[in-house]
Amino acid sequence: MYILEKIDYMLAFMFFPKKIYLQLRDIYRMGKTLSELKIGRYPPAVIAYPDTTVLEVIRGMAEKWVRHAPIVDKRTYRVLGMVSARDIIDFLGGGPKHRIVLEKYGGDLYDAIENEPVCSIKYIPPYVSLNSTLYEVVNLMMGGNIGALCVVDEMGRLVGIISERHIMALIESYHTLVKVAELMSKPLIYLPPQARILDCLKLMHEKHIRRVVLKDPGGLKGIVTIKDVVKFFSQDEVLNDLKRLGKENIYNTPLSVIATKGVVCINPERDIGEAVEVMRKFNIGSLVVVNSRGSDLGIITERDYILKLPKIRGVEIFVDAQLKSIIVGRVFL
Known about the structure:
Structural class: alpha/beta
CATH class of the domain at 30-165: Alpha Beta
CATH architecture of the domain at 30-165: Roll
Strand order of the largest sheet: 3-4-5
Order of helices and strands: HHHHEEHHHEHEEHHEHEEHHHEHEEHEE
Strand content: 15-25%
CATH topology of the domain at 30-165: CBS-domain
Number of helices: 16
């Protein structure tokens, strides 16, 4: 993708459906600001402070069904960092942040979750303002391979958050001339249904993924998302068992217990505009890609749209500020 100051409407008419061409007359490129497009969440659904515990953030994320929580100073509201569901997974046993549990709490995961300040597992994200353009937001997400950005005012105080889900909500489900196969991530990463929660934690961290498909010789059996894992650890029953029986008992829970049983699929030859429509219909952020022979080839996710779509040859992205929508299409091969 490259940025043009003017749109060649004759070229657009040749390659886009008429409905899109008519909209292009009043469309601007990705130079529109967050304030103009009015996208994001203001304020964020979950906000943490330096003394907020990991357990409080886990419960907040599960209740609000979000993956990110900005951390701010209580007095100034300046952003101190961000914690994501990835950081939670890392802390719970998936990656090196679990060393805090081992070294500070002697391996007692319940004690660690209940008492450890979430600040100890934060990262420092790049920030944007309401005057930042959508182009700047997408570039920051692409450059840092991150799914959400804090939105701050001129004093560095938190006002909101913008995520790839907010951007995806703007993408129109038009025919784009881009196939699912061009955007999907492959091969499909999966575990058997009887795999343990701990296996999932480690795989998500190792592969830097948010979804694990469950598969056995009989085919696809379900899917587990990073939100499913966070929700699992937020439940009182699980926390009580964690306190009484220890982490190994919880780690050994089969993934089939927390998985969504139905797996929504799409053919690799379908248009990515159709994939957007299917995701919206089922209110999900990914589709497993299965060909006509029933072979699973990969997965297409919201992040694939944000990180990969701007890099595909011949694809242009237009922002309609009036309709608050993003139109994607291939203008040349």
